[in-house]
Amino acid sequence: MRRARWDIARFGLLTTIALLLCLAGLWPAASGRAAQKKPVDAGSLEKEERLLSTEDGQNLHITYYKSTMEKDAAVVVLLHMKDGNRFVWQAEPGGFARRLQADGFAVITVDLRFHGENKGGPAAAAGNANQGGAGKKKGKKNQGLNLKLGDYDAMVEADMEAVKKFVHEEHQAGRLNMAKMGIVGPEMGASIAVAYTILDWNKEPYDDAQPGFQTPRGQDVKALVLISPEEKYQGIQMAKLLPAIKENKQIAVMICSGSDQKEEAQAKKIFTMINPPVVGNKEKDTLNSERMYLKVYTPKLAGTDLLNLKEVQIEDYMAGFFDKHLKKLDIPWRDRKSKRERPKK
Predict the structure, then answer these.
(1) pTM
(2) Is residue 292 part of a domain?
(3) pLDDT at site 29
(4) Is residue 93 reached through a cis peptide bond, with omega within 30 degrees of 0 on the bond before it?
(5) What is the pLDDT of residue 342?
(6) Which residues, in sequence order, are bridge partners of residue 226?
(7) How far is Cα 95 from Cα 100, in angstroms, rounded to an integer?
(8) Domain count of the chain?
(9) Which pLDDT score is estimated for 119?
(10) Does residue 334 form part of some domain?
(11) Measured between alpha carbons, how far is 208 from 15 in angstroms, rounded to an integer?
């Protein structure tokens, strides 16, 4: 399988944090909020349960939150931790999926194989925001589901590809813009997200025109949020994957973690892999700082246990990040079917 500085102080007053984020473009200024349109009632927006099929015969349950922006809509895929499920994002009425949808994003929450409502996985009840994650100590990868290395490979190569196929279908139908795609991955999901991003960017374009004018097959993932990522997760090694992302100026990355000593050390180590200290080259350092972010939160919690906490507000940071690095991207919608398969005009 093809594996693929902005450091905010951990402690401080909320107003200080908000000011720093406003300067970085990841928190809306008060005047900007006043100028915005009346907020959308997220509960009135369309949501659908879908069942996808993978190439190796697995069924995947997803929830699809349609965007009202259609061809201008960026799309965000929300993954989960090991033993977790997609419902962690779906609390009603204030879950993160609904928040993104109200902001104009198309959103897809995913149960990866053997998780959530998928065959062989534990049943999940809607509305239980942190089911599968709460109370589980980070690093205990052998607890819960007995997954093998091949299962993680299949999550990347089959499950995520099935999700991407669905995104492509919605793109072709004019309901979103797949070239503005982001992924949120907590813990296990972080490794899956990074590995899939490399796979997506390694796809050769269709052979339907001269180089430079070909229709792309991939290269759509432009933003990643990695929550409590691990340097090594069941054979998926960040050190082998992240150099390609570091060099790719089109991909923005936000890394978040709790303040547990080991977890914080892991997050900072991974962050240096994509944004290493640069001495004597201020131009390059500035370029990286505009698309690479690190946030360490006070609670000693991991992954999706950081969600829905007023003292943390991780959802605000993620929403600001996607607004800047997905929603505001100047990438027009284009037909993604091979030119050889399009009807002749």
Answers:
(1) 0.83
(2) yes
(3) 38
(4) yes
(5) 86
(6) 185, 255
(7) 9
(8) 1
(9) 67
(10) no
(11) 53
Q: Note the pLDDT tens digit of each residue in 61-83.
A: 999 999 999 999 999 999 999 99
In angstroms, the CA 228 to CA 267 distance is: 7
Which residues, in sequence order, are bridge partners of residue 224? 183, 253
Tokens of 331: 């990438």
CA 187, 188, 191, 194: dihedral to nearest 10 degrees?
-80
Q: What is the pLDDT of residues 231-245, one digit of tens each?
A: 999 889 999 999 999
Q: Tell me the CATH number at 164.
A: 3.40.50.1820
Per-residue model confidence (pLDDT) at position 310: 86
Domain annotation covers residue 332: no
Contact 198, 4 (CB under 8 A): yes
Of 82, 176, 191, 171, the residue nearest 132 (C-alpha): 82
Phi/psi of residue 266, nearest 5 degrees: -60, -45
Q: Is residue 316 part of a domain?
A: yes
Q: Please report which helix (H) or strand (E) contains residue 254, including its range.
A: strand 252-257
> Coil, strand, or helix at residue 178?
coil
Place of tokens 């200024």: 29
Kindly state the tokens that stand for 214.
């070909």
Q: Which domain holds residue 81?
A: 6-28+50-206+214-327
Q: Which residues of the chain have pLDDT under 50?
A: 2-23, 27-39, 121-139, 141, 283-287
